[in-house]
From TrEMBL:
UniProt keyword list: Lyase, Magnesium, Pyridoxal phosphate, S-nitrosylation
GO molecular function: ATP binding; D-serine ammonia-lyase activity; L-serine ammonia-lyase activity; magnesium ion binding; pyridoxal phosphate binding; serine racemase activity
Family per similarity comment: Belongs to the serine/threonine dehydratase family.
Tryptophan synthase beta chain-like PALP domain span: 27-319
Enzyme Commission identifier(s): 4.3.1.18, 5.1.1.18
Name under which the protein is recorded: Serine racemase
Length: 335
């Protein structure tokens, strides 16, 4: 396990102004996603839960917000040669779709172990798939070669101010839809989603609490908060394939300063939460997207007296792109 020391800073990659600008920029393209409630889940959790359904967003995930903001932030000259990224998941499809809407090429470097359903989405939205090995080093090397060959603009999945600002538009919508929310629980991976949400929400309501939900098999954010520096795990192991990235240099300061805690859950809890989303909310959510419900139902959250006053909880259902074969096998085996 490796830790990177970071200097404390009050300067963040995005702020409420850039997030409001992003909302205006992308409003014609993104869905204002609904908020669902369930008396059954309220009773189980002992709280009022409000599910922000980004699984209903274009592309099936919140990632379209950031990708759309990044693509439409480009000047015509910058956009002429298209965009490039490396991603194994929803960002790849989101960037492909945003580029398609703008009418520019999208070069997507995809590791060979990417979920089949997410690769199919890239192709469906017109992205050009360039394969790499599964390692981050291979992904970055192939992306660098594509950049050299095409002159395209790199759009990082999360360590990008435009991406963070786009994801922050979720807070603007959620707090308009449900003003009484006092807590938001957000899946965490590279940190782009929670950074944008925290920056917007804390600006609108400084007393609001922001919690990250993270799988035990990829708990680098929890360890980073404990260490006070970015921790990079040598390997990850979780069914939540969208939550395996490490924090970035732009997202870490926000997570360090504005995220009130990290709730770590086991894969079996994520699987159970995914099942509850299907059976109770009647919503198809991928494991990475269901982890917020797993967190609010976890013993560590429910029994912590410090958090007993978190009564009106917003939960971001971040995506619904899942490999059903993997989910059914997991349900059958009850990991």
């Amino acid at each position: 396990m490796e830790a990177k020391t970071e200097e404390s800073s009050n300067e963040y990659a995005a702020d409420i102004s850039s997030i409001k600008e992003a909302q205006e920029r992308i409003s014609a393209y993104v869905y204002k996603t609904p908020v669902l409630c369930s008396e059954t889940l309220d009773s189980i959790s002992g709280r009022n839960l409000y599910f922000k359904c980004e699984c209903f967003q274009k592309g099936g995930a919140f990632k379209f917000r950031g990708a759309c903001n990044a693509v439409f932030s480009l000047t015509d000259d910058e956009a002429a040669n298209g965009v490039v990224t490396h991603s194994s998941g929803n960002h790849a499809a989101a960037l492909s779709l945003a580029a398609k809407i703008r009418g520019i090429p999208a070069h997507i470097v995809v590791p060979k172990n990417a979920p089949k359903c997410k690769v199919e989405n890239v192709v469906r939205y017109g992205g050009q798939v360039i394969w790499s090995e599964a390692t981050l080093q291979s992904r970055e090397e192939v992306a660098r070669k594509v950049l050299e060959d095409t002159g395209a603009v790199l759009i990082h999945p999360y360590n990008d101010a435009r991406i963070i600002s786009g994801q922050g538009t979720i807070s603007l919508e959620l707090l308009e839809q449900i003003p009484q929310i006092d807590t938001i629980i957000v899946p965490i991976s590279g940190g782009g989603l929670i950074s944008g949400i925290a920056l917007a929400a804390k600006s609108l309501n400084p007393a609001i609490r922001i919690f990250a939900a993270e799988p035990k098999g990829a708990d680098d954010a929890a360890r980073s908060k404990e260490e006070g520096a970015i921790v990079i795990l040598p390997e990850t192991n979780t069914i939540a394939d969208g939550l395996r990235a490490s924090l970035g240099t732009l997202t870490w300061p926000v997570v360090r300063d504005l995220v009130d805690g990290v709730i770590v859950v086991e894969d079996k809890e994520i699987i159970e939460a995914t099942r509850l989303c299907y059976e109770t909310l009647k919503v198809a959510v991928e494991p990475s997207g269901a982890i917020g419900l797993a967190a609010v139902l976890s013993e560590s959250f429910r029994n912590n007296p410090v958090w007993k006053d978190c009564k009106n909880v917003g939960i971001v259902l971040s995506g619904g792109n899942l490999d059903l074969d993997v989910l059914w096998e997991s349900l059958k085996n009850r990991i």
